[in-house]
Specification:
Layout (H helix, E strand, L loop, with lengths): L3 E4 L6 E2 L1 H14 L18 H9 L3 H17 L6 E2 L3 H10 L3 E9 H10 L8 E5 L8 H13 L15 E5 L2 H9 L3 E5 L8 H5 L3 E3 L2 H10 L6
Parallel strand pairs: 1-4, 1-6, 4-5, 6-7, 7-8
Antiparallel strand pairs: 2-3
Amino acid sequence: MYQYILFDLDGTLTDPKQGITGCVQYALRRLGMEAPDADALEPFIGPPLLDSFQEFCGFDEEKGLQAVAYYRERYAASGWFENEVYPGVAEMMARLQEAGCHLAVASSKPEVFVEKILVHFGMRPYFEVVVGSGLDGSRARKEEVVEEALRQLLGKGTPAKGAAGNRRDVAMVGDRKFDVKGAQQFGLASIGVTYGYAAEGELAEAGADRIVDTVEELAEALLSGGQAQA
């Protein structure tokens, strides 16, 4: 089995759709714009917020930063707990912990909110390391988050960037291409989950080592060390 496992949060451990899309709608309305429905805003789940506002709304950096500020205004008040843990995740974590796996969260979400969400849902005790981005915009890229999580989890054993294949006892689990690419930067095994928010074919196109459809399949893949390939 994998000795070390890094998990994305949104779309992997929890379903954050209500909170994230509600906060995007709030930000757009504060900017005097019409807000699309929640389904149309699903692409915001996963990437850094500033990138999403620029890519999907056509904002320049200044307007994008203002949108992020409005988003976080609502998110800090209520959006973070408009969320739910996917069925079976807590049971999977207990199995992995009992099996001796070292578990971490590596999320592009601000770390302060990652911690609050994990504590709120009673999941914080499963993780030795929790890493997110900074509210000041630091560590916004997935590869930066993965690098810091590895540094804390492995210490001197941290893989060098681009050192493909040197830590296949470490897996990165996520639902978007950003998670796969973050794993690839450090030679980690990448496991994509389709129950999250990836577009059809996104994980395969990104080159995920294995793709699973359910939490139950994910648990078996992690405990078997990826012996069965997709």
